[in-house]
Amino acid sequence: QVQLVESGGGLVQAGGSLRLSCAASGGTFSSYGMGWFRQAPGKEREFVAALSRNGYSTYYVDSVKGRFTISRDNAKNTVYLQMNSLKPEDTAYYYCAACSGGSREVLTIARFYRYWGQGTQVTVSS
Predict the structure, then answer these.
(1) Contact predicate 12/86, CB 8 Å
(2) Which of 19, 30, 62, 118 sits 20 to 30 Å CA-CA off 94?
(3) Rounded Cα distance, 59 and 65, in Å
(4) Which pLDDT value is given to residue 102?
(5) Contact 105, 36 (CB under 8 A)
(6) Checking DSSP bridges between strand 92-99 and strand 46-51, what pairing results, if any?
(7) How far is it, in rounded angstroms, from Cα 8 to Cα 46?
(8) Residue 3 has pLDDT above 90, yes or no
(9) Closest CA to 22 of 74, 78, 93, 68
(10) For residues 83 and 18, is the Cβ–Cβ distance under 8 A?
(11) What number of CA atoms fall less than 13 Å from residue 33's CA on the CB side?
(12) 10-25: b (≥16 Cβ within 10 Å) or e
């Protein structure tokens, strides 16, 4: 059983930056692909970013490419989402998740993730 705890959300002005962290415990962190998803009010949960177990492969939704960076520190059992040039449309509840798979087709789809954190709110004001 893997537990995931997100932190780092908050309120920021458009153009600002935030760094989300997701600390994992209870499992072998390096054996999981990790992803970030978000859900805005009235909308479905959306894939944001993911990276492979070794961190060498990363994937992003088009709307965040060039602005967000996902990374992991397997020694600290932590995955990060650096968010720059934030826009009001980035406002959502952000979740990290752990997946046993490693391909792009798996890591970009929420239903393949077995473990989820409770989420953290990100609000971007205009």
Answers:
(1) yes
(2) 30
(3) 9
(4) 81
(5) no
(6) unpaired
(7) 19
(8) yes
(9) 78
(10) yes
(11) 24
(12) eebeeeeebebbbbbe
- Rounded Cα distance between 35 and 125, Å, is 25
| Residue 99 contacts residue 113 (beta carbons within 8 Å) | yes
Report CA torsion sign: 110, 115, 118, 122: negative
pLDDT reported for residue 27: 85
Q: Which structure tokens are listed for 94?
A: 């952000």
Using the Cα atoms of residue 105, residue 29, residue 74 and residue 95 in order, give the sign of their dihedral: positive
21 contact partners, CB below 8 Å, separation of at least 6: 6, 7, 8, 78, 79, 80
pLDDT of amino acid 77: 96
* Distance, first Cα to last Cα, the chain: 40
